[in-house]
Design a protein that fits this description.
Elements: H1 2-8, E1 13-18, E2 28-31, E3 37-40, E4 55-59, E5 62-63, E6 73-74, H2 78-87, H3 96-102, E7 108-110, H4 117-127, E8 136-139, H5 145-153, E9 156-159, H6 163-176
Parallel strand pairs: 1-4, 7-8, 8-9
Antiparallel strand pairs: 1-2, 2-3, 5-6
Length: about 180
């Protein structure tokens, strides 16, 4: 939905998606706004992202390709997660420029529950035990104690509401914003 929203708004973006299957499994693929793809072979050397020019959408669990199902590649089952987490150190696979940007960014988590062990493991691999440096939020209805403790340790505010209500309210507020000069 995020990509569709950007496309509908005419906003170019880069997509970086985890490859879960095939011979390139464990790497990331960069989809450029023009549709060209680039395999990220050496994340510490990859400079193909224009973080100062446009948005980058990062999909750490892979993606569904709505145009060509044979390109679907995502982590979904418990066995996928076990393979993903035991073979992969996600923090070393993401391009270094994107990792640096993530350390200086706000986060909005939509609908995640930390009662899922796999999400906790992935976030622990990315952040360790550190608090986030920038204000961040999670949208979660009636969070369990494990969620509250995890987010509190990282200084993430919980907005206790249904995801649909949050999205509807956000949409109403965005629609009420005055139009920028130049029609966009």
């Amino acid at each position: 939905m995020l990509e569709r929203g950007f496309k509908a708004a005419g906003e170019p973006f880069d997509l970086v998606s985890y490859i879960a299957d095939g011979e390139q499994r464990g790497k990331f693929l960069h989809w450029k706004p023009e549709g060209e793809t680039c395999l990220i072979e050496k994340p510490n050397e990859y400079r193909g992202l224009s973080l100062d020019q446009r948005t980058v959408i990062l999909k750490i669990h892979g993606a569904v390709d709505r145009v060509a199902a044979e390109r679907d590649s995502y982590v979904i089952t418990e066995d996928h997660y076990i393979d993903y987490l035991t073979r992969t150190d996600i923090s070393n696979l993401v391009p270094v420029t994107l990792t640096a940007k993530l350390r200086k960014s706000h986060f909005l988590f939509l609908g995640y529950s930390l009662s899922d062990w796999n999400l906790r493991v992935i976030l622990h691999r990315i952040w360790g035990e550190q608090k986030l440096n920038y204000k961040s939020w999670t949208i979660q209805l009636n969070p369990q104690q494990i969620d509250q403790e995890f987010w509190r340790k990282r200084d993430v505010d919980i907005l206790n509401m249904q995801l649909e209500d949050y999205i509807n309210t956000l949409n109403e507020r965005v629609q009420a914003l005055p139009q920028a000069r130049g029609g966009t």
